[in-house]
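S.,

Sequence below, as promised.
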Amino acid sequence: MDKNILSAKEQFDILAENTVEIITEEEFLNKLEKSVSTGAPLRCKLGIDPSAPDLHLGHAVVLHKLREFQQLGHHIIIILGDFTGMVGDPTGRSETRKQLSKDEVLANARTYQEQIFHILDREKTEMVFNSSWLARLNFADVIQLASSLTVARMMEREDFSRRYQENMPISIHEFFYPLMQGYDSIAIKADIEFGATEQKFNLLMGRHLQREYGQSPQVAFTMPILVGLDGVNKMSKSLGNYIGITEEPAQIYGKAMSVADELMEEYYRLATSLSAKEVNEIIASIKSGKLHPRDAKMRLASEIVALYHGRNAAEAAEAQFKQVFQKGEMPDDMKEYEFEGPVGIVPVMVAAGLASSKSEARRLIVQNGVKVEGALVSSTDLELQSSADVVVQVGKRRFARVVVK
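The prediction came back faster than expected:
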């Protein structure tokens, strides 16, 4: 580590910001002090099961915390759970998660590998697949691993306990998920592990198993869960309340402008790179009336776009937003898509990037969120006929010109 690094206490104050819980703070400070005195960086672990192909702002919360550790000289290890991903994390599930094939997991992992480096420094990040060690375990190793935990302890997990009480099936292989995640910490000798609040049981499992295997237990960082654009549920692609980090700048900007006023502070703290001092000043200005909430939201949208696409893209997205929504005009640089006619509105929306799936497209239509040439689409069975040249609009933000041959 750099000799000019900050003191342990200075690092602690920075890294403890915007976390839910650090288990334990005393151990974390001790690890930082040892790191400063020896010059050895902390080994910081984040495990990701590639169960879906794209990252959104909810995923990015923990990645930005990792970036802070990275900037202070600590070693980041991303574990892509190609092995655990085939089991599926049962956390928060009311039923057994469908097991993914190895091909599905690897395809999603490739996307994660590309998108993670929108936030982390590629040159300073170690990325490994946990099949590197888990696939080598024989049955005797697995028995030894399982012997370190009781069924009663496993049933302390809220989701397992609830499913058991409700007579919902729990597959034996699901019990192995937290054991495998914990073994990951042993394999890489993790000092720190990160996860959302719902991952607490799994993070503590790593601490437990490290002790069993003679290692110093990792410190568990639980991170806040970002509420989605609906203002109710956590951000999720399946719920359609997400902002993807690789979406077009104008789309990110427009979605950010739909964030509820009461969620602005949370988004400023968890979804931008602004310091706590800067965020505090913005929030204080809103409360005092010096800053209009609309202007604060435009600043928020710009900061999010700039984070993933650069400041120039943020300025262009803001200009387009003003043109479309403050002046009531359509964007000049609307993308054009060609189809052989006749073609249904649902596949058109998916192909034009106006919906992530056919089911989402149908949902948007049913919710009166789709227009063709300014007219509301009332049926999911609508077909665009040959020679049509129309503008398809989804919500207030997304436009595409559709030409049907």
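The two ends are 61 Å apart (CA to CA).

Coffee later?
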